[in-house]
Write a structure and sequence with these properties.
By secondary structure, the protein is of the alpha+beta class. Helices cover 51% and strands 20% of the residues. The chain is built from 7 helices and 6 strands; from the N terminus they run αββαααββββααα. Strands 3, 4, 5 and 6 form a 4-stranded antiparallel beta sheet that branches. A hairpin with a 4-residue loop joins strand 1 and strand 2.
């Protein structure tokens, strides 16, 4: 099975974890107390030592992966999630919460300037204005305020409906953006590898 990844730490951890999972869940076993490698014509009469070395290799790859990528997911996921400020269902929820109705870019009211994912909830930065002009990235370039009324601030999505909106946005971002698969999935596979092999030995 070919597996290409430009990141050597992630590649090593993924392949080793998959090898553990395949051996464990597919019922792999050594029928005799001898392991033979035809490629180099080597015989091993103590397969338990090889098992210990395999475990050491797995934990070493986990350590090296954590050492290189610690904190990367949080940083990149927050950047990716900021793009979700343009989602219509988030804007509708926000406008109903602050203005009591949904509005468009041309309408005067509260508009989302930024959205931030945090472990304590989703924080929305906003301003009061109208006639929004957006760039190619759909971010706001300019706006005006009718009647001189302007205000800005922040609000946290903390009610039940807001929690559902935030949950939907988080799941969508995890699926559509690469940070979760790049930085979290390798840990998940490593945990599955450890759990499946350990449970097999216990059972």
């Amino acid at each position: 099975m070919a597996y290409e990844d430009s990141d050597p730490e992630r590649r090593n951890l993924m392949l080793t974890s998959l090898a553990f999972i395949a051996f464990s869940l597919a019922g792999g076993e050594f029928r005799e107390n001898v392991v033979q490698l035809q490629v180099i014509n080597a015989h091993f009469t103590k397969p338990n030592i090889l098992a210990v070395m395999a475990w050491m290799m797995l934990f070493w790859f986990i350590y090296r992966y954590w050492q290189k990528h610690s904190g990367n997911f949080t940083k990149e996921f927050k950047s990716e999630f900021a793009e979700w400020q343009h989602k219509e269902y988030i804007r509708n929820y926000f406008n109903i919460k602050l203005d009591g109705k949904t509005i468009t870019d041309k309408d005067e009211g509260h508009h989302i300037n930024d959205i931030e994912w945090t472990t304590k909830g989703i924080v929305i930065s906003y301003f009061y204005g109208s006639d929004l002009k957006r760039g190619k990235d759909r971010r706001i370039g300019s706006y005006s305020s009718r009647g001189g009324n302007s205000s800005d601030g922040k609000t946290t999505i903390n009610d039940f409906k807001g929690w559902l909106v935030g949950f939907r946005a988080t799941v969508e971002c995890i699926i559509e953006k690469p940070s979760f698969s790049n930085y979290v999935v390798p840990y998940i596979l490593a945990i599955i590898a450890i759990a499946s092999t350990s449970l097999r030995n216990v059972l």
